Amino acid sequence: MRNLLPIAFLLIFSFCQQKVTPPKPVYPIPHERQIVWQEMGYYGFIHFNMNTFSDREWGFGDESPEQFNPTDLDARQWARIAKKAGMKGLIITAKHHDGFCLWPSAYTEHSVKNSPWREGKGDLIQEFVDACREYGLEVGIYYSPWDRNHPDYGKPEYITYMRNQLTELLSNYGDIFEVWFDGANGGDGWYGGANETRKVDKLTYYDWDNTHELVRKLQPNAVLFSDAGPDIRWVGNEHGFAYETTWSNLYRDSVYAGMPEYSEKWAAGQENGTHWVPAESDVSIRPGWYYHAYEDHKVKTLPELMEIYYKSIGRNSSLLINFPVDRRGLIHENDEEAILRFAEKIREDFKRNLALGASVTGSAERGDGFEASLAADGDYSTYWTVPDGQIQATLELEFSDATTFNRLLIQEFTPLGQRVKSFVLEKEVNGVWEIIADGTTVGYKRILRFEDQTAEKIRVRFTDGKDIPVISEVKIYHAPKLLEAPKIQREKSGMVTLISPDQGLEILYSVDGSEPNTIYNQPFLVENASTLKVRSYDPATEESSEVLTENLGPSKALWQAEQLEGIDENASTFVTLDQNVFSVDLGEVKAIKGFSYLPMQARYPSGHITNFSFSISADGKNWKEVSSGEFSNVVNSPVEQLKRFNPVNARYIQLKALKTADGKTATLAELGILTR
Ligand code: FUL
Question: Which is one GO molecular function term here (predicted)?
Fold first, then answer.
């Protein structure tokens, strides 16, 4: 049982023990359970369920429990890796959109009890919980309200089913730290054989108030996640990025899970939001949430993961990184390697807080118990603050020697509310203050990155806020430089350019899947589908970056289409499909085994294709469909979609959008073919 008492004591203590009056809270302020949660910071997601075996992102609901059959499932391996990676907890997909349950629920036959796994006697939630407890990790449950399997979905009876299941999950497995409600709802599904589209009113159908009350009753310490909270909100994208300005405050009564325009209008929080509903950034370590063997080489690189860290944890959000557990029932070796390298790099970046040795002064002192040194004592529960009314306040740090650094970390004491609206970091050069970096909101944690700076004296100037700053910590670090892999650029002609991330580096590559050891001097032509591997090498330190692998398709030099942006190998351009159809003349007959569709990559895209038909032709007039189906989850996660089919020969290809997510004319960033 996690104990909230220490936090309550801490608050009472800080109010009673001070000789000087503490500042008044700026509302809204966090609930105790949210304070416990915010300190967890970084935890993991396990996407493992029927989709792992059907090779899908969103199952339709017509899958058979027979398909669920991991060969070597070991939840202890997940927990061991998560623990080693510094995560504080794990959240598992107990039931995803396809309705299959990882525990032997008494309310459905669509569960592990009818699968071959452990001869139908297994309970994966129990194994997961046992493993987490053994490794000292908190346990979280993901539960999809949308259920494409259940015959009653869309009717009031389904809400009873959902609550019965939540009662099982939240009563039988001990303490749960987070209950994760997904806002996704695509409409169509199997629904017990009805095979139809069922739209629900997302605001009213789930009767959230009563569902939340049930969760509160069963797990009073758990935080509830959804687009709209009530405790933790979705960050509005699946890249793992919070915003430059991220408020923990939210106009909670104006939002609901799965609502349109949530990302654009609400996800960043609002300065005067009425409730404390901080952001959680969720992202998968691979493009997909579920395991697909074809993504084995697409595990996020170290620079990509670090970018996520700084844009989530470093922007007043928690970070939830997903492992798509594979068909064995294990976290894949590549994912394990990536997360451990990431954990190591975080440890290196934040190894030594240089502010700890500095002498600290504040522009004004409120008095005993709030002195400036408390902002640099490494203790979150103590804080520095200034007399009422002095919103613009400065904290100065003087090091004993000239000190080199490139990171600033600031934390507000959130039990008194989120206040800071803007701040700058400055260093003193020959008696003159120079700005190094600036930021807007702080919240629980804000981290700024900048080029190496050397100074004896620095200061953080809080330039605007909702009230006086109340600062728990200001930390300074010198993070070692990360050697990045080169960037890969391809042109329609098939030419490949490799771009060095920095000066003075060598670039090495290979195009046959072997170790990248050929020195790159100039752009080269890749005509056929190939496996390109690249790395950077620093002759001065003899260090290498990690190896980047990219599967290149055949060159598009001969390809013709009415709008070339869809075949220009440039992800940032896109086409709007005339009549929702995009046709390409490949210029020659090709043996094709599938195709790839990259959705439009703009910040606020439109026309993402959710249902497609793909056809081929010998003359560009008579078409034959070779594949049709769904692109799942393209709105929240617009990653490249690969569809395979039996090999065919074709000169012309055509992608037809049968349906788009927003009902607008279809768009696409890039169309490709698979020949391997
Ligand atoms: C989304 C779902 O549709 C994805 O499949 C995944 O579970 C992700 C975490 O949330 O909304």
Answer: alpha-L-fucosidase activity
